[in-house]
Amino acid sequence: MCTAATYKTKDFYFGRTLDYEFSYGDQIAITPRNYPLHFRHAGDMENHYAIIGMAHVAGDYPLYYDAINEKGVGMAGLNFVGNAAYADVWSGVDNIAQFEFIPWILSQCSSIVEVRKLLGQINIVNTPFSEQFPLAQLHWIISDEKESITVESMADGMHIYDNPLGVLTNNPPFPQQMFQLNNYMHLSPKQPENNFGNGIELNAYSRGMGALGLPGDLSSSSRFVRVAFTKVNSFSGESEEESVSQFFHILGSVDQQRGCCEVSDGKYEITLYTSCCNATKGIYYYNTYENHQISAVDMHREDLESQKLICYPVIQGEKINFQN
Ligand SMILES: C[C@H](CCC(=O)NCCS(=O)(=O)O)[C@H]1CC[C@H]2[C@@H]3[C@H](O)C[C@@H]4C[C@H](O)CC[C@]4(C)[C@H]3C[C@H](O)[C@]12C
């Protein structure tokens, strides 16, 4: 399972949890403006917007999981197993392989308005990256500071939904996730009122009772409601530290602890990493299951005119701040 979220204070923040039972070997990869991008069916691109994100780097090709570009657009792919379907190559459209979708969008679009235009001529195709890396069944959230959309390529075609919450998890399809929020519209950060009428004496004996019924399990639909509730009620100061801290707390609401989600005998899905991008400033913050300290890579500290991919390893291992 995975969860993505957006958050706005002075700057715009975009990030995700990546939940899985193993790591593909991740790095923070910066694709600078002049790194040549070769698309399998859509030609070459010599210059483009710079991109930073989490990727598996195969050879020197960044297979992005989630990323932002220098214009403040963010995009993340989350599992959509059993529902994702990609098409064959057609003529007269931009045929973009599933693994090329993030670079295709982030290299060219400076806003969701531009993303929507590009999506109008895209066909996401079933060309795998390699035998070792077959197609990943995903759906995507794409956001800028003004709006978010969800893209789902399914057997009946490509769907583009407005995503007014700016959150995404996994199955079921997005309209169903939104529909089930109807069941939770009564949830509130305020204390509940007694609607049982006069004479029935009830007592809000604990703080937080306005959100009684918020689903606490790790299923995708429960995480959707939980992260949506947390995000829409979230409140923090505007500084970078306060915003980043609050963002990690929002995604902390859907964190997965080893042992609670067994995917096969003795194998557990956990939150391998959590990212928080300051999309306004081009900074990729993250922490991992094994390292709660926040680490960061700032794209603007690099030569963004370069032609070479720039990679940083994910820093693991807890750093405990002894005070005595
Ligand atoms: C496993 C990741 C998604 C995690 C997730 O959503 N878990 C939920 C589990 S569940 O459904 O709810 O059970 C996805 C997100 C991005 C994916 C990667 C990216 O798409 C980039 C390439 C794409 C290649 O086709 C496959 C390898 C790969 C390197 C992908 C491996 C894997 O499928 C990743 C890492």
UniProtKB/TrEMBL annotation:
GO molecular function, one term: hydrolase activity
Pathway recorded for this protein: Lipid metabolism; bile acid biosynthesis
Domain Choloylglycine hydrolase/NAAA C-terminal: 2-312
EC identifiers of the protein: 3.5.1.24
CDD domains, A to Z: Ntn_PVA
Top-level enzyme category: hydrolase
Keywords per UniProt: Hydrolase, Lipid metabolism
NCBIfam families: bile_salt_hydro
Family the entry assigns: Belongs to the peptidase C59 family.
PANTHER family: CHOLOYLGLYCINE HYDROLASE, HYDROLASE
Protein name, as recorded: choloylglycine hydrolase
Native source species: Ruminococcus hominis
Higher taxonomy: Bacteria, Bacillati, Bacillota, Clostridia, Eubacteriales
